[in-house]
Write a structure and sequence with these properties.
Elements: E1 2-6, E2 9-12, E3 17-24, E4 32-38, E5 45-50, E6 57-59, E7 67-72, E8 77-82, E9 91-98, E10 107-108, E11 112-117
Parallel strand pairs: 2-11
Antiparallel strand pairs: 1-3, 3-8, 4-5, 4-9, 5-6, 7-8, 9-10, 9-11
Length: about 120
Amino acid sequence: VQLQASGGGSVQAGDSLRLSCAASGRSISSYDMGWFRHVPGKPREFVAAIKSTSSNEYYADSVKGRFTISRDNAKNTVYLQMHSLKPEDTAVYYCAARSYHALEFNYWGQGTQVTVSS
């Protein structure tokens, strides 16, 4: 499966953004999907994930209550709605997919830059 993230940009603190991750090649309906972010010089950080079967959602504590992950299997797309953005949310955001038997996310898209200024 190929993943294409989009929707990043430069915003002010307190603003909102919605990231999209469009998949191609295979249906994402059987994949767990996730968002991660990376700041140069720091380890990649888990942001949010959504299960393929139950659509249960999981969030990093740092974004809980502000970010929402969702999926539209008909559109083969995953979203990350981000509200109340903070400067510390500035990062390159990546979407990822985990196939059924994989222990880790094994498909990655290119990143989209999110910059939040104070």
